Amino acid sequence: MIKNLGYLKHKLIKYTYYIEILLALFIIAATLVGVADLIRYLVLIFKTNAIDTYLIFQKFLGHVLLMVVGVELVIMLLSHSTSSVLEVILYAVARKLLIYSDTTLDMAIGTVAIGMVFAIRKYLFTKEIKLEGHGNVFSAATPVSVANTITGLNIPEHLGNTIGGVIAKIAESTHRPVYEGVDYRVGNAKLKVISMKDGVIEKVVIENLDE
């Protein structure tokens, strides 16, 4: 029964990641469509007199920053890393601060919010940020093909469909237990387990050993 529940959980995590990829594709498509609006804004700025250009340019910047938030959201959906979440929040706050802050109070609140994001990044997630500096953080449910595309590595797909599956296979063949902090090497890649819950791998750092 417990084994079946573990298998079901693994499958649900895998399919959830596929849904996230689909949502990321929709966001990318919407962002690409939004480029056409940027071109229209540029034409409008060119045709508008200098007095009225300010408001149009403000809307142009708001549109650009919104697209940046969309791009960062895609990165967050694919990488599942803490830093990507903080970057989405940072760009969203920056957009609000630069475009929609009309009073000194708005500016002060926005500045404090940005300061809090940097404080959280520095003091609460130091370990994960350090790890990300030497590799990419992935969910264990990430398909091997997706991880290879993002990292440029060539992790053998015959070892498992997902990164977690690859680690489980290597651990079984090398008789090394899986725990937080353990790393396994396959080809020019190092796979390090950084997060587990109830014996199930959640997050893995993938590092290119050739760099």
Give a structural overview:
With 211 residues, the protein is an alpha+beta fold. It has 2 domains: 2-130, no CATH class; 134-208, Uridine Diphospho-n-acetylenolpyruvylglucosamine Reductase, domain 3, CATH 3.30.465.10. 67% of the residues lie in helices and 12% in strands. The chain contains 7 helices and 4 strands; from the N terminus they run αααααβααβββ. The protein has helices at 2-47, 50-79, 82-100, 104-123, 126-132, 144-151, 163-174; strands at residues 136-139, 183-186, 189-197, 200-208. It has a 4-stranded antiparallel β-sheet with strand order 1-4-3-2.
Residues in helix, %: 55-70%
Give the biggest sheet.
4 strands, antiparallel
Lateral arrangement of strands in the main beta sheet: 1-4-3-2
Question: Which structural category do the helix and sheet elements fall into?
Answer: alpha+beta
Shape, please? elongated
The average pLDDT value, as a whole number, equals 83
Low-confidence stretches: 126-132
Number of strands: 4
Give the DSSP E fraction (strand runs of 2 or more residues): 5-15%
Query: Secondary-structure element sequence?
Result: HHHHHEHHEEE
The tally of structural domains comes to 2
Short description, anyone?
Helices cover 67% and strands 12% of the residues. The chain is of the alpha+beta class and 211 residues long. It folds into 2 domains: 2-130, no CATH class; 134-208, Uridine Diphospho-n-acetylenolpyruvylglucosamine Reductase, domain 3, CATH 3.30.465.10.
